[in-house]
C-alpha cells in the first residue's frame, strides 16, 4: 500500500506538489497530514473572508507555494520537503504581510521575496539548532517577518495598514475584564485561530477538528493550552482587548502541543512540564508585548518559540521521542528538516 | 574522611539539602563552600532588613529552595546539584522579584514560578554553552527575570514598585561627582553587595569576608573589581546616583573574580587580561543602561555575563584551568553543571 | 620566489608588520592583498581629509595597529594573523569612534581600549561561529562599537558628536526622491566608501580600483551591489538623505562580494542567490534603522553580517569553495581565523 502510494506520487508530480503544500499547512501545528492541512487552509479562508481580508488567505497560500518552490530550487532533502517542513514558515510570512501592510502590487512582490527568504532562513536556522538537536520551529517566519515589518517603516511605498504605533511601554491600567462564559469560550477559540493571524472563533473550531483528524492528543492539548493561557492572562489582569482577541492564546497553544505530545510522549510528568512551559509562554508573550512596544512590531509566535526552546533544550529524561517516530493516534512527524 | 562525609550526607538528607542550598548561595560568587554561602545569606538578610525590605531576603531563600527542588524533580546530575550549581540563579531571581514588584500574595506565586523556570533555563543554556565549554554563568537568572519584569508591565495584578520608567536615552548631564574618600569606599563596598541587589556597604564587607573564607584571591579580586569599576565610572563622568549606589561595581566584581581566579589561574598575563575584561564590563554596563532605558528594566548581571563570555571564549593559552579542578587556597569548583 | 618572500618577511619583522596591517585593511573587503589594503587606506585618508575629519583616518590606522598588536600579545595563530584577519574589525572600530564621538584625548584612550577589545571579541565570535563553519565577518566590530556608542550616552566626559538622537520610529514620509543620473552614480560610489564610514564618491572609486587590483569579480560585484541597493531603496521610497549618502549601499556591497565570489564560486545559480541576499540586505538595513532608532546608534555593517550569515548557513550545493583556497584572478583568502 505504501509502495503503491509512493509510486503514485512519483507518477504525478502535480499531485505530489499539492500534497507537499497541504502537509506544509498542517506542519504549522506539527501535523504531517494533508487532510489536516486542507482543513487548516479552510479555516484561514473562512476567517479571512469573514474579516473582509481575503488577501490574508491568498497571501498564506502564495507564501506556502513560494517557500516550497524556493526549497525545491535549493535542492533540499526530499523527505523533509515532502513532509511539508519547508512550507509552514513561509505560509505564516505570507499571512503576516497582508495582515499588516496595505494591499498593493508592491506588497505582493514584498511578500514573495519574504517567503523565498523565509525558506533560506529555515535552512540557516536548522543548521544552527541542529547543534543541540532542537528544531527551528516557526522562528524563520518570526525573524524574517520582523525584518519585513520593521523595514516597512522606512519605505514610503510599502505602507503600513495596522501595525501598532511605536510607543514607550506603560503599566497596563483600565477596567477589570468582565467576560461571560460564552465570551471566554469565544476568546479561547480565537486563540487557536490566531496561530494563523485569524481573529475568528469558527476558524479556531475548524482548526481543532483539523488537529483531531490527525491526533486527538494534539487537539486536546491545543484546547488546554488556550484555556490555560486565556484564564491566566485574564486572572493576572492583562489588557482586555488582547485577551478577548485570543492574543494570549496562540503561542500557548503551540507550546502545549509541542511539549505535551510532539517532542515528548504525553505522560503525567510530561504534561506537568508542558503546563509550566505553557504558563511561562504567557509570561514571555506579555514580556515581548512590552519589549517590542517601542519599535511597533508584533511578537508573532516568538513567545512559543522561545519558551519551547528553553523547555526542549534541557533534554530531561521525560521519555522524549525521536522526532521521526510516529506517536499517538496520528502521524506526527518531527518538524526539523534533516540537515 | 571524604568517605565518612559522603556517608554522613547520604544518611542525613535534610542536612545534605541545607548544605546544597548554602553552596548554591556561595556559587553566585563561584564559591563551592557552605560557610561562604551562609555568610552571604547573612549579608543579604542584613541588607534587606536595613532597607526595611525583608521580603528581598525571604525571596532569595525561597527562590534558592524552589530552584533546587525543581532541579531535583528534573533529576539533574547529583554532583552538580550538590555543588549548588542549580541554586545560584534561582536565588537571584528570588531576590529580584520582590525588589522591583509589590509585596502581594500573587507576587510570591510569580516568584516561585519564576524560580522554577530559572532552573529549566539553567539546564537549557548549559546545553547551549557547553558547545563552547563556557558556563551559562548567571544568564538564566538574567533572562528569566527580564521576562518576569517586562511581563509585569502587562499584568494589572502584578504591580511594579520600583522599575525605572521607560524613556528614551539622553546623554548624561548634571553636576560633577564630588565624593570624599569615605564616600568612595562606601560606594565600592555597596558595589560588592549589589551582586545580590543589596544597597548596603556592611553587606558588601560581609561578602568580602565570605569570599576570603574560601579564597583570598577571590576576595582580593572582588575588591579590585569594585575599586576599578567605581573609579573608572566616576572618572568618565557617569551618573552620580548610580556610582554611589554601587551600580557600576557589581558586574565588574563578578568579571574580575571569574576571569582572574576562577576560570584562569591568577598569573600576571591573566590579571592584565582580567583587568581589560573588568574595564570592558563597565562599558557594557553603561551600554545596557542606555539600551534598556526604553523598556524600563535593569541590566541585572548581564554586563558581567556578556563581558565574561567574550573574554572566556577566545580560550587563549593564559594557563586556563579545567573547571572541575580546585585552585588557590580554596575549593572553587566549576560553575557549569554537567550536561 | 615565494620562499624568498617568506624569508624576506621573517628577516624584516617591521616590513612583515606593515604587510600584515595592509592586508588587514584589505580584509575589510575580503582581499588578502597589501596593495589593495594600501589603496583602501588612501581612500579613507582622502575621504577623511575632504570631510575635515582627519581623526577618522588616524583612528582607522590606530585601531588597525592596536588590534593587530593585541592579537600578537594573545599569541593567535600566525597564518591568520599574517593574512590580516585580526586587523579588519579593529580598523573599523577605530574609524567609527572618532566619526561619532568628540575628538578629545579621552576619546583616543576609549578608541584604543575599544580596538583591543575588538580583537578579543573576534577570537570569541570565531570560536562560536566555527561551530557552523561560517566566519564572524565584521560582527566583532559591530558588537564592540555598539557597546562603545551606547556607553558614551552614560559618560559625561566621552561626548557624542554626531549620533542620531534616540526617538520612536515613524513611517518615512516626505518628498519623492528626484535624482539625476549623475546624482545616482555619486550616491552609488559613496555606498562603496561608506563601508569605511566615508561619505565621499572619489573614495568609493579608489576602493573599486583597490578591489580590481586583487579580483575583478570582487570589483564587479561591489559595483552591482551598490547599484542594486541604491536603486531598490530609492524605488521603495526610502529616506532621500540616507540614499544619497550611500547608507543603503555599503552593507549590500559587502553581501554581494561575500556571497557572489568569496564564499561561493561565481556561477549563475550563485549570482542569483547573491542577488536575493543583496536585496534582503537592503530590507535588513531598513529594519535595523527602525529597530535602533529608540537607542540612537547606527547599524554599522550589521545588515551585511546578518544577511550573509543567513545565506551562508544553509550550505547549499552552490559549488561552495573552501575558505583557504584561491579563486578567480586574485588571492581571496578565507576570512575566518583558524581556531
From TrEMBL, chains A, B, C:
The keyword Transcription regulation is annotated on this UniProt entry: no
Protein family according to the UniProt entry: Belongs to the urea transporter family.
GO cellular component, one term: plasma membrane
Pfam family, one: UT
Key words of the record: Cell membrane, Membrane, Transmembrane, Transmembrane helix
Subcellular location: Cell membrane
PANTHER family xref list: UREA TRANSPORTER
MF GO annotations: urea transmembrane transporter activity
Membrane topology: Multi-pass membrane protein
Annotated site residue numbers, Important for channel permeability: 301
Protein name (record): Urea transporter
Domain of life the protein comes from: Bacteria
Gene3D superfamilies: Ammonium transporter AmtB like domains (1.10.3430.10)
Organism: Catellatospora methionotrophica
Membrane-spanning residues: 30-49, 55-73, 107-129, 136-155, 192-211, 218-237, 243-263, 270-288, 294-313
Amino acid at each position: 500500500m505504501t509502495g503503491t502510494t509512493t509510486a503514485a506520487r512519483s507518477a504525478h508530480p502535480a499531485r505530489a506538489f499539492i500534497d507537499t503544500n497541504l502537509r506544509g499547512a498542517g506542519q504549522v501545528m506539527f501535523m504531517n497530514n494533508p487532510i489536516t492541512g486542507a482543513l487548516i487552509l479552510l479555516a484561514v479562508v473562512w476567517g479571512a473572508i469573514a474579516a473582509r481580508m481575503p488577501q490574508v488567505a491568498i497571501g498564506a497560500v502564495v507564501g506556502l507555494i513560494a517557500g516550497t518552490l524556493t526549497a525545491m530550487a535549493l535542492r533540499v532533502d526530499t523527505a523533509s520537503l515532502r513532509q511539508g517542513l519547508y512550507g509552514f514558515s513561509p505560509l505564516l510570512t505570507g499571512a503576516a504581510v497582508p495582515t499588516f501592510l496595505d494591499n498593493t502590487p508592491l506588497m505582493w512582490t514584498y511578500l514573495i521575496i519574504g517567503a523565498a527568504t523565509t525558506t533560506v532562513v529555515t535552512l540557516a536556522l536548522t543548521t544552527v539548532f541542529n547543534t543541540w538537536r532542537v528544531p527551528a520551529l516557526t522562528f524563520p517566519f518570526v525573524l524574517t517577518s520582523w525584518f519585513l515589518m520593521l523595514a516597512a517603516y522606512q519605505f514610503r511605498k510599502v505602507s503600513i495598514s495596522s501595525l501598532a504605533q511605536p510607543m514607550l511601554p506603560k503599566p497596563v491600567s483600565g477596567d477589570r475584564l468582565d467576560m461571560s462564559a460564552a465570551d471566554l469560550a469565544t476568546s479561547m477559540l480565537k486563540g487557536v485561530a490566531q496561530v494563523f493571524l485569524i481573529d475568528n472563533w469558527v476558524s479556531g473550531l475548524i482548526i481543532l477538528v483539523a488537529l483531531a483528524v490527525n491526533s486527538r492528543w494534539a487537539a486536546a492539548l491545543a484546547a488546554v493550552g488556550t484555556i490555560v493561557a486565556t484564564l491566566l492572562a485574564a486572572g493576572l489582569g492583562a489588557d482586555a482587548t488582547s485577551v478577548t482577541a485570543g492574543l494570549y492564546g496562540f503561542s500557548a497553544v503551540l507550546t502545549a502541543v509541542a511539549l505535551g505530545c510532539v517532542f515528548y510522549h504525553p505522560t503525567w510528568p510530561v504534561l506537568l512540564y508542558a503546563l509550566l512551559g505553557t504558563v511561562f509562554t504567557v509570561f514571555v508573550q506579555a514580556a515581548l508585548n512590552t519589549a517590542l512596544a517601542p519599535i511597533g512590531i508584533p511578537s508573532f509566535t516568538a513567545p512559543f518559540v522561545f519558551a519551547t526552546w528553553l523547555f526542549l533544550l534541557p533534554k530531561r529524561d521525560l521519555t522524549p521521542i525521536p522526532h521521526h517516530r510516529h506517536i499517538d493516534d496520528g502521524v506526527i512527524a518531527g518538524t526539523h528538516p534533516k540537515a
